[in-house]
């Protein structure tokens, strides 16, 4: 019974470690998903702007209607209401339900305008953020395709807090900047296939010859303190 319990606990621990192991494919939003998010955000921004424009038009028209009824509840209600341009009949009927456009109704319309403007701002911020991410993805893809490793190394260095200059020197010592270099050890930083495919590597599902994946994996490994053990010769020369 005790042995069975131990085996069960070991099995659960293995499952937990497999679940918690970092995986780029499990957490990274794909380019297609990111572009879809941007399209959706742009659509929401357009709708929010339309609603804000309508809210402002309703407020302006209500203010125009309020002037003839400024005498208060004792004023003679207008027998026929002709809504100003931009004010729908339903809202006009609501405003004139008691024969007067009250300050409370104007205040409610101002609140509606404020909320609509805030929504426009939130969606505009989101659109800018997503557009920036899409642009950066395209830029990174171009750099990787052209084997322009310096800007990619700078990005990875900043993200993981390692020296981009040292990372670049180590790459040049390992492969001379050739993503397809090597036979037993492969790629920009000369990984063995077994090391590359290990669970420590969030990009293990990418090709070992993917330069951008190797740059990020190496910066990640250096942050974890793997530099001296993984690159015993070039690490000390580079850093």
Give your account of this protein's structure:
This protein has helices at residues 2-20, 24-27, 31-66, 89-95, 103-145, 149-160, 164-175, 193-196, 211-223, 227-230, 234-238. α6 crosses α7 and α6 packs parallel to α9. It folds into two domains: 30-145; 149-238, Lysozyme, CATH 1.10.530.10. The longest helix is centred in the middle third of the chain and has 43 residues, at 103-145. Helices cover 67% and strands 0% of the residues.
Strand segment tally: 0
Rg result: 31 Å
* Ends apart, CA distance between termini: 53 Å
**Average pLDDT reading:** 85
The SS-based structural class is mainly alpha
> SSE order in H/E notation?
HHHHHHHHHHH
Question: How does the overall form come out from the CA principal axes?
Answer: rod-shaped
Task: Estimate what percentage of residues fall within beta strands.
Answer: under 5%
Major sheet: none
Oligomer description: single chain
- Provide the domain count: 2
Low-confidence stretches: 1-26, 72-79
Q: Give helix % range.
A: 55-70%
Question: How many DSSP H or I helices?
Answer: 11
Quickly list its features.
Lysozyme; 11 helices; 67% helix
Summarize the structure.
The chain is mostly helical. 67% of the residues lie in helices and 0% in strands. It contains eleven helices and no strands.
How is the secondary structure organized here?
Blueprint (H helix, E strand, L loop, with lengths): L1 H19 L3 H4 L3 H36 L22 H7 L7 H43 L3 H12 L3 H12 L17 H4 L14 H13 L3 H4 L3 H5 L1
Helix pairs in contact: 3-5, 6-7, 6-9
